[in-house]
C-alpha cells in the first residue's frame, strides 16, 4: 500500500512584483511502505518545496498530496501524527534549550505524555551518543551534533514516515556512516523514508528508489540499478603513471566522454569497445594502479541533469 500519494503537485511562488517562480511543476509520485526514496537534484530543483508540502509546512498551489490516506492540506493534523521531519542545518531546534529540553518539549508537543516523553528522551539521548552533552544548550553544539538532535527528535514519536532534508549536512564521516546504519535499521523496522541528499554514495547505499528532480519535475524515478542500466552510463577508468601521449590517445578514442589528468588519469568511457581500447593503451604504456569503476549514481546524475551555469 502506498503511504505517500502525490498527484500533479505544483507550487508557484508569486512575489509582489515580477514573475512567479515555479518550484514544483506537476509532480506525481507514489511511495510504498518500507521504501527509502532518495530525492536528488541540483540546488533550486524543488526538493525542499516537495518536502515542505508533504510535512504540511507549505501549501501547494495545485494538485494533491496524501499521507496514509490523509490530505496534507485539509487533514494536516492527522498527517503530522504520521511524520517525523529531519531538517539539515540549524533550522527547527531551540538553541537556548538543552538537547534534553528540546526532546522533552517536542515529546509534549507530540502529545506523548510526560512519562513516555521522558523515557523516550533518555532512550534517544543514549542512542545518538548525546548523553554526556544532554544538558548543554544546543546552540553550543557542533553541526554534526545538532544533526543528531534532529534525528533523535524526529524518531521520538516513532512515526511510520520520516522526511529528511539533507540530514547528513555537516556530519563527519563517522557520523555519516552511523546515519547510514540507522537508515538500514529503520528500513528493517518497516519505516518509510524520503531522503533529500546531495551525497550520491549515501543515496546509493540506503535508497531503494531514486527520484531525480530538476526544474520542479521528476526526470527519472526507479531503483538505482534499473536507472543505470537504462541510460548505459559511462564507466570510469583510473590510472597512475600515465604518459602524456597515452592520455592523448585515450582522449581521441571514440566513446571517450572525458579525460582529466593530474599526474594520474580519470577517463569516462561510453561502451565496452572504448573501455578495452583505453585499457590496452594503459597496459602498453605501463601505467600503474589501473582500476575500472562501474557506473554509479554520480554518472547517472551527470547524464540526466544537464549542466547548469553556476549562478549565485
Ligand atoms: N519562499 C520562497 N519564495 C520564493 N521562491 C522560493 C521560495 N522557496 C523556494 N523558492 C524557489 O523555488 C525553487 C525551488 O527551491 P527549493 O528550495 O525547493 O530547491 P531545492 O531543490 O531544495 O534546492 P537545494 O538543493 O538548494 O536545497 C527555487 O527556484 C527557489 O528559489
Automatic annotation (TrEMBL):
Entry's Gene Ontology molecular function annotations: ATP binding
Subcellular location, record wording: Cell membrane
Top-rank taxon, per record: Bacteria
Bilayer disposition of the protein: Peripheral membrane protein
This protein's UniProt keywords: Antibiotic resistance, ATP-binding, Nucleotide-binding, Plasmid, Transport
A Pfam family it matches: ABC_tran
Residue intervals of the ABC transporter domain: 4-240
Family: Belongs to the ABC transporter superfamily.
Protein name as catalogued: ABC transporter ATP-binding protein
Amino acid at each position: 500500500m502506498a503511504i505517500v500519494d502525490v498527484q500533479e503537485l505544483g507550487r508557484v511562488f508569486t512575489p509582489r512584483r515580477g514573475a512567479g517562480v515555479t518550484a514544483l511543476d506537476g509532480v506525481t509520485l507514489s511511495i510504498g511502505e518500507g521504501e527509502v526514496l532518495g530525492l536528488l537534484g541540483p540546488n533550486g530543483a524543488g526538493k525542499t518545496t516537495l518536502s515542505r508540502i508533504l510535512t504540511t509546512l507549505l501549501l501547494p498551489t495545485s494538485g494533491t498530496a496524501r499521507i496514509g490516506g490523509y490530505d496534507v492540506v485539509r487533514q494536516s493534523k492527522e498527517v503530522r501524527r504520521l511524520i517525523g521531519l529531519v531538517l539539515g542545518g540549524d533550522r527547527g531546534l531551540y538553541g537556548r534549550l538543552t538537547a534534553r529540553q528540546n526532546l522533552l518539549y517536542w515529546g509534549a508537543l507530540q502529545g506523548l505524555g510526560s512519562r513516555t516523553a521522558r523515557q523516550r528522551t533518555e532512550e534517544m539521548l543514549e542512542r545518538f551518543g548525546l548523553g554526556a552533552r544532554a544538558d548543554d544548550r544546543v546552540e553550543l553544539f557542533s553541526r554534526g551534533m545538532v544533526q543528531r538532535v534532529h534525528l533523535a527528535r524526529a524518531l521520538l514519536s516513532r512515526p511510520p514516515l520520516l522526511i529528511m532534508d539533507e540530514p547528513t549536512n555537516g556530519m563527519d564521516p563517522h557520523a555519516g556512516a552511523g546515519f547510514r546504519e540507522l537508515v538500514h535499521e529503520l528500513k528493517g523496522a518497516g519505516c518509510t523514508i524520503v531522503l533529500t541528499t546531495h551525497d550520491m554514495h549515501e543515496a546509493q547505499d540506503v535508497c531503494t528508489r531514486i527520484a531525480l528532480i530538476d526544474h520542479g519535475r521528476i526526470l527519472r524515478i526507479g531503483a538505482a540499478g534499473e536507472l543505470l542500466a537504462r541510460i548505459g552510463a559511462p564507466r570510469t577508468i583510473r590510472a597512475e603513471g600515465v604518459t602524456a601521449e597515452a592520455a592523448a590517445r585515450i582522449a581521441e578514442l571514440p566513446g571517450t566522454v572525458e579525460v582529466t589528468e593530474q599526474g594520474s588519469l580519470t577517463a569516462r568511457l561510453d561502451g565496452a569497445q572504448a573501455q578495452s581500447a583505453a585499457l590496452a593503451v594503459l597496459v602498453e604504456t605501463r601505467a600503474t594502479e589501473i582500476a575500472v569503476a562501474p557506473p554509479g549514481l554520480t554518472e547517472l546524475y551527470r547524464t540526466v541533469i544537464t549542466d547548469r551555469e553556476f549562478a549565485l
